[in-house]
Amino acid sequence: MAQSTRRDFIKTTGVATVGTAALAASSYAAVQGANERVVVGVIGPGGMGTHHIRTLLKQKDVRIAQVCDVDRTRLATAAKNATQDNRVPTTTTDMRRLLENRDIAAVFIATPDHWHGPATLLALAAGKHVYVEKPASHNIREGRLMIEAARAARKICQVGMQSRSTEMNMTAMRMIQEGAIGDVLSVRVWNSQLRRTIGRVKPSAVPKQLDYENWLGPAPFVPYQANRVHGVWRWWYDFGTGDMGNDGVHDLDVARWGLGVDSHPSTITALGGKYFFNDDQQFPDTQTVIFEWPSVGKNNQKKQMIFEQRIWTPYKMEGYENGCAFYGTRGMFLVGHSEGWRLFGARNKELKTVTGRADLLAHHRNFFACVRSGNRPSADIEIGHLASSLCHLGNIATRVRRVINFDPKTEEIRNDKEAGPMVRRTYRAHWARPRGV
Q1: pLDDT tens by residue, 88-123
Q2: Are 271 and 278 in contact (CB under 8 A)?
């Protein structure tokens, strides 16, 4: 397909023809040979995107061909940071131009949350493998579309939950699953740290370097406001998923992993709100969510997960700022995000302690190994969807302040006219608006 024709094809069809577009793109987005560099593009090279660039540069079998950002100042910095062997990557403010690049086999997406789903769907439609930051999606419906698109395109889709590729965490999960603390029926997850206020700001003129139209993408239009964009978008319903989707998702994923549940919960209830910050942010700074699975495993056991969030606390819980505590019939296992873990037996006897850090490089290597082999990655999009959905369900339950009943198969909230529509979102007319939402 000619490049101009392909540009029009992506522009007019959006993400509706994933399978067809992926097959058309397969001739130039194929997996690289074992001794060749995998050519990648980076979309959203800001905060976490910068970490990805630095980590990509450490890998001799990877080359960054192009970077994309809607902020031209950040884009120039990213191009400088991504220079390899005196070779400066090309730049663009429009991800469609990057997705048309025939050399690029895989993309790293580190945009605001509201772009994760649309950008991933467009990339898969263009025949690219995808590494997308957490949370995988902005809402539950997008997550399901992402799974379907990855499977139809037969491409690798890894979510940025690096605990899944970190050896100390894999060891802890293996020990739990092998019965180190007996039967695990409950897990408590916490996100406890001190965040900063985003203040109260009025709408203002859009900075000259920012393509605000494409920063918004298919999200509903709101006037530009300085505390809605870089780094603080996560506190707004239209663009982020709060700190539950930002930091909490890592520990919720580990909790679900160790608890041994491979489906959505059926019952969710929550309380929370803004107890501390007096600013513009919409998501709660204090939040308690309870999830219940009615029947897990061969013994059809009930299992429970409790999530606690306080983003105004300058101290640790159980020795860890963020983490989870697995409660078993013969002991307790504490797992700290990016810090290590501690195993306790009966009567609080400490049996083993391990320290360490989350391994981003290992997560990259897992992704590229799967790009070459075709195997499912450690944080495959389906795993990412289940973890992200816990955040979405917890935030929904917190907003409506009551028990919600969720159907894990249809992914719909039952008999709730207020909460039901929140598994989706409202989109405006835009070239990246997904179909099927």
Answers
A1: 999 999 999 999 999 999 999 999 999 999 999 999
A2: no
The rounded Cα 22 to chain-centroid distance in angstroms is: 23
How far is 126 from 6, CA to CA, in rounded Å? Answer: 9
d(CA 418, CA 302): 27
The tens digit of pLDDT for each residue in 374-383 reads 999 999 999 9
Query: Which two structure tokens, joined as six digits, stand for 106?
Result: 């895989």
Average pLDDT in the 126-143 region?
98
Residues 321 and 409: their CA atoms lie apart, in Å, by: 34
Structure-block tokens of residue 432: 């990246």
Q: In sequence order, what DSSP letters do the residues of 71-127 get, joined into one string?
A: BHHHHHHHHHHT-BTTBPPEEES-HHHHHT-TT--EEEE-S-HHHHHHHHHHHHHTT
- The token duo for 127 is 């025949």
Residues 420-435: what's their mean pLDDT?
Answer: 96
- Dist. CA 191–CA 394, nearest whole Å: 13
Domains, the chain, in order of start with CATH, read 3-163+362-380 (3.40.50.720), 166-358+389-423 (3.30.360.10)
> Based on the number of CB atoms within 10 Å of its own CB, is 203 exposed (0-12), middle (13-18) or buried (19 or more)?
exposed
| Predicted TM-score (pTM) of this structure | 0.92
Highest mean pLDDT: which of 46-50, 154-158, 313-317? 154-158
* 160 closest CA partner among 377, 424, 340: 377
Q: Residue 33's pLDDT is what? A: 54
Contact 425, 240 (CB under 8 A): no
Asked if 235 and 263 count as a contact pair (C-beta separation under 8 A), the reply is: no
- 276-310: per-residue pLDDT in tens? 999 999 999 999 999 999 988 778 889 999 999 99
Q: 244-279 pLDDT, tens per residue?
A: 999 999 999 999 999 999 999 999 999 999 999 999
Q: What's the rounded Cα separation, in Å, for the pair 38 and 60?
A: 10
Strand order through the sheet with 267-273: 350-355, 340-344, 332-336, 322-328, 184-192, 301-310, 286-296, 267-273, 404-407, 412-413
| Residue count (the chain) | 437
